[in-house]
Structures are given as structure tokens and as C-alpha cells.
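Before the break, one more example. Copy the sequence into your notebook; we will annotate it together after we see the structure.
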Amino acid sequence: MAHTFEVLVTMQQAADEAHARVLALRDEYGPPTAAAWSDEQTAAYEQAWREWRKLGSEVQAAITEHASEQGLGRYDVEMDVKKKARHPEAVAS
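Here is what the structure looks like once it is written out:
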């Protein structure tokens, strides 16, 4: 399935938000080796981590497909997507 650049940006933003959730839970719960997490904390963290990895994998695959279809360098597409997703005000449309 072909993805437009804007769809890739939206996918990257979703992956970034999921990653932020993982980091927030880690900050909230503390390092798992410092104090044991409850079963609920472990489940919440693992669910957030799986969601982040799923979204990250999906956006990476979509970037690869888009770059190939457009005849562009994959790295360049990835960097453009991340820049637009993370700093939309710095990228001219």
C-alpha cells in the first residue's frame, strides 16, 4: 500500500507518542531493577512497549516502501519524515 509523505509523518508522530508513553511509564515506575514493579505496572509497561515497537516497525516499513516507489534514498526519506513529524514549524510545506 502506497503512503503519502503526510501519512508517513502521521505514522511517525504516532510512534513518537507511543515512545513517549514508554518513557513516561519508566520515569513513573523507576528502573525495574531498583524496585520490583507490580504485575499491573509490568503489564502496562509491556503493553506500551509492544505498541511503540509495532508502530515503529510499521512506519519503518512504510518509509522503505515509499522511498522505493518514489526512487528516493530511504535514509533521506526517513530524516525528512522525522524532521517534519518532530519539528513541523521548521519545515516549509
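The chain has a mean pLDDT of 93. The chain is about 75% helix and 0% strand. Try to locate both features in your own notes.
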